[in-house]
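Here is the promised in-class demo. Please do not try to memorize the tokens; focus on the logic of going from shape to residues.
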């Protein structure tokens, strides 16, 4: 019998070893409290990213006649509805451009549950936009016809096949594409994987980000602004990696080369025609033109659930993805407490039923809790205006971009570590041609000047020196701030997998790593019983 005992002993030891190995492989969890700040410095060169040229086959027009191109799907506010968008006809660029008549081509989507049974039909609207520069020597642009059609009465969690175009014109219907609607709202109902990307642009590094993202087979893509970087070009098609360095003082207006938007739409079509993508504006979407018009490409090219979520604005809106209520906020729209966005946000938050959508996730462009020198505390006025409202409603996660690097925060509220604060994740590392952010504000000699910089699109100045904590009296910390959990200057994308009403797995994937391997991973764990009473503002948090 002793040998048997020894076998059992070895057996238990092996089991124990296996259990330890599994435990070690488990990602860390926010339940363990704030983690010690980590900075990872990649060894490879962070040389500049190079745009795909207009000769790249992936950006060229393959559609002929009135055939659709740049086909894209976006979610509506509820999973029973979705948007399909596409473009027909050719854009014009140059001297005298004459806008196409949007009534030339119909906007029809035929759809159904099988590729050979597209028995339902929806119709929508068409528009064109122009980007005009009334300045000597500058070229104008006018778009192809942009179509947006809303499908309604869909089943949640269901794959739909569709064709879009104009069935009355020969050759004007697209190939058959397919996408899946989000699962129904509910505490045990979640999309498998949500990809979160920012600041993509259209470089060879962008294609690496998108390839890595596609390999993770996302059910939804959230793009937190800075999309095509068409404003890195002059209207004659000459581009630069630093607009203000190259042309900043020589151009009468900040020019754009709008065909870059079409290139972006074409390059992205394999993703956007089959995976719903939700976009919110970044500063690169501002794109000023004649008559102080802004955001023309952004508001024309994408469909937003603005009416469906009651915002009636392309700059902020909300939608449900299973048991997640997403709120997309406008960092370049009025966010003051007396403004329309804030009032809409109050109403939207008040409507959220956390027993149906336990998760509250927000997305916008410019980060509140960044520690890089670039854009350090740039949108403090937005944070001061909106943070308390989101916190009191138990915001779980906030995704941002803008800073061209990756950073994840510990749970934080008002610059103070707080077990009920949100986790802030910034993924402005999509691969665009501007410089990657590599310098931290806490490095000696790199704390930016706290004085306001003139910027018509970021109202006011709110970034004063800290009044408490280790950086009291100063504008920057002298080491990686405690609120910063992990930061790294590599290109990549993130994947959010919500498992149930308390656990979500966040993974950040670097472009230089093999598909599937994660650079940063963490279980973001909600504690509703500890934190959610705060969302009932009529009941004091620590009252009787
Ligand atoms: C960008 O892509 C190039 C290859 O196209 C690669 O050599 C470089 O390392 C990439 N940069 C980063 C920061 O990933
Ligand atoms: C572009 O459009 C503006 C506004 O219509 C006009 O003033 C300008 O002359 C146009 N540019 C060219 C090159 O035609
Ligand atoms: C575009 O304009 C810039 C600035 O005037 C000039 O340097 C460049 O050569 C032009 N490029 C082309 C392709 O005409
Ligand atoms: C555009 O903005 C400038 C500067 O803010 C202002 O001087 C000008 O009057 C505006 N033009 C129009 C057409 O609104
Ligand atoms: C945030 O902290 C600042 C400085 O300590 C304080 O003045 C302010 O009242 C705090 N805001 C909230 C909403 O707690
Ligand atoms: C704010 O902090 C900076 C250093 O970070 C310092 O130079 C400046 O004097 C401080 N301003 C005030 C008003 O304390
Ligand atoms: C939620 O998911 C996590 C991770 O998969 C798991 O450990 C936990 O037991 C789940 N909780 C419930 C209530 O299902
Ligand atoms: C909020 O608090 C008030 C007062 O304590 C209570 O009457 C109400 O039922 C609470 N509502 C929720 C949703 O917990
Ligand atoms: Fe940006
Ligand atoms: Fe950017």
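The designed amino acids, position by position:
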């Amino acid at each position: 019998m002793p040998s048997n005992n020894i076998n059992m002993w070895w057996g238990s030891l092996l089991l124990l070893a296996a259990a330890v190995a599994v435990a070690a492989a488990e990602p860390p969890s926010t339940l363990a409290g704030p983690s010690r700040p980590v900075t990872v410095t990649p060894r490879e060169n962070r040389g500049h990213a190079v745009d795909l040229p207009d000769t790249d086959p992936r950006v060229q027009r393959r559609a002929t006649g009135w055939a659709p191109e740049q086909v894209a799907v976006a979610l509506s506010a509820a999973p029973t509805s979705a948007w399909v968008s596409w473009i027909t006809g050719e854009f014009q660029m140059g001297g005298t451009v004459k806008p196409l008549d949007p009534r030339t081509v119909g906007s029809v989507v035929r759809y159904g549950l099988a590729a050979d049974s597209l028995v339902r039909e929806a119709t929508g609207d068409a528009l064109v936009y122009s980007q005009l520069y009334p300045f000597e020597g500058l070229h104008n642009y006018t778009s192809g016809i942009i179509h947006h059609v809303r499908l309604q009465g869909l089943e949640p969690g269901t794959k739909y096949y569709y064709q879009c175009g104009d069935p009355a014109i020969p050759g004007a219907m697209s190939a058959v594409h397919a996408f899946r609607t989000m699962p129904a709202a509910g505490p045990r109902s979640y999309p498998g994987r949500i990809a979160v990307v920012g600041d993509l642009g259209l470089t060879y590094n962008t294609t690496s980000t998108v390839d890595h993202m596609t390999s993770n087979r996302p059910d939804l893509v959230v793009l937190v602004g800075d999309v095509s970087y068409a404003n890195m070009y002059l209207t004659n098609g000459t581009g630069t990696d630093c607009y203000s360095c190259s042309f900043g003082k020589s151009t009468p207006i900040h020019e754009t080369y709008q065909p870059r938007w079409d290139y972006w739409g074409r390059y992205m079509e394999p993703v956007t025609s089959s995976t719903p993508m939700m976009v919110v504006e970044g500063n690169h979407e501002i794109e000023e033109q004649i008559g102080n018009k802004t955001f023309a490409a952004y508001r024309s090219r994408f469909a937003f659930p603005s009416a469906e979520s009651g915002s009636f604005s392309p700059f902020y809106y909300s939608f449900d993805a299973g048991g997640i209520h997403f709120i997309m906020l406008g960092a370049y729209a009025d966010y003051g407490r007396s403004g329309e966005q804030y009032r809409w946000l109050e109403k939207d938050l008040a409507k959220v039923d956390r027993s149906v959508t336990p998760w509250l996730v927000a997305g916008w462009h410019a980060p509140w809790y960044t520690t890089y020198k670039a854009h350090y505390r740039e949108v403090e006025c937005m944070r001061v205006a909106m943070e308390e409202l989101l916190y009191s409603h138990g915001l779980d996660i906030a995704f941002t971009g803008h800073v061209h690097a990756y950073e994840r925060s510990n749970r934080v509220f008002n610059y103070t570590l707080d077990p009920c604060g949100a986790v802030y994740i910034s993924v402005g590392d999509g691969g665009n041609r501007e410089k990657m952010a590599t310098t931290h504000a806490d490095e000696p000699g790199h704390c930016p000047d706290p004085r306001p910089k003139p910027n018509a699109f970021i109202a006011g100045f709110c970034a004063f020196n800290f009044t408490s904590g280790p950086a009291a009296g100063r504008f920057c910390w002298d080491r990686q701030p405690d609120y910063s959990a992990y930061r790294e200057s590599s290109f990549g994308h993130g994947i959010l997998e919500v498992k149930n009403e308390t656990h979500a797995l966040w993974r950040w994937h670097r472009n230089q790593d093999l598909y599937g391997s994660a650079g940063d991973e963490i279980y973001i764990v909600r504690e509703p019983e500890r934190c959610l009473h705060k969302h009932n503002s009529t009941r004091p948090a620590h009252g009787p």
